[in-house]
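Thanks for the sequence, V.! I ran Secreted protein right away. Repeating your input here for the record:
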Amino acid sequence: MNCVQRPSRLRLRAALLMLCTGFSAGALAHNPMCECKAVDAEQIKCTGGFSDGSGAPGVTLDVIGYDETILVPGKLDADSTLTFKKPAAEFYVLFDAGPGHVVEIDQADIEAP
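Predicted structure:
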């Protein structure tokens, strides 16, 4: 009987491994992405979305000071963008599409025009 049980255990393990692999591949296909560029000396435009090519309209995109105060609260427009006036204080941009779907962009990483 051990010979009969051993192959079924192997099949069960293989099935579980395939099932877990399928879940992890699905999770990896939907990573958050956000890019911010200076339009000019005064304005910054951020575009958010996901690695599967989908946009992120309505997703929260806040501009936050280094002291953790929200300088510009925002949500991405229908075209998954938000343009805002560059704050005078040091800041970072927080794209927050929910747990595990967060991107932070420091002001130093924002491309110049």
